[in-house]
Amino acid sequence: MELTKENVNYQGLVHQISETFLQGQKKAVVSVNSHLLETYWSVGQYIVEFEQKGSEKAKYGISLIKELSKDLSELHGKGFSISNLKRMRQFYLAYPIGAKPSHQLSWSHYVELMKIEDKLERSFYEKQAILENWSIPELKRQKKASLFLRLAASKDKEKILQLAKQGQTLEQPKDIIREPYVLEFLQIPEPYHLSETEIEQRIIGSLQHFLLELGKGFAFIGRQYRITLGNRHHYVDLVFYHHILKCFVLIDLKREEADYEDVGQMNMYLGYFENEENTEGDNPPIGIVLAREKDELLIKYAMHNVSSQLFVSKYQFYLPNREELKALIERQLSRDDE
Asked: Suppose 148 and one of 4, 124, 129, 249 were both cysteines; which one would form an S-S bond, judging by CB atoms 3.0 to 4.6 Å apart?
């Protein structure tokens, strides 16, 4: 039997070996990462326990890390710089016995996470990085964009604590909505004089970043999605499918303030998709009118008796004021339970 690329049995063998090899590589990486985290955690534990022995702490003081770095580097070479040893010590203090770190994240993830002083915020980013399989750049971007603070700003004390403990869970349409959406990755300079089409084009050009901002579960379907009603063509700016909620997500971009007509138009789009585009197993579509500004009272009345699957949310081209958001969350957490 000739072993050629056309031989089905041989190609099956190649595929089988290839898949096994790739899985083995993946397991090896996971195993190495797991051992690395345990090693660094243990080093941090030894340093902290040594420091806590009283006389030794007084004797060595702040020079302990410096001396350790010198002696361990002579024995083992790279890996024991002063900064690395400080991080290992911090690692143990941040994740003491009973709260050990997850092996699903790398040491580089934890280096980024340890830069977050607030325990609730750090816990959220850890859980979310695991849930959404964030890379290091993705984790950095979400930290910079204050995702936790944005999601927590509209929640009460109990929901904030739940968010920090579990991450963002996606169970119903409102769970995917953010306020505001931050589009700083579009790099649009002030005074932001771009048309809706130009904003849309920039989003398509930075689709990976936009999907990250939307959150977990989104798959891009198309732009300027045409629907025809009564011999008239209408176009939905952006269409996605959410594979967790199993529904289409329609986004209509507005250059300025959202109006009641925008709500009516999106409601029409939702009706069309539910009746004409949905297939068996699909849930009702979700619509998001994404605008620079919105009048809360006007939108409230415009949404009266309108689909609960329709949302009006704001976007901004710059990063949110972290200190203002943080102060708002702290006020929420400090309120006594009613």
From this structure: 124
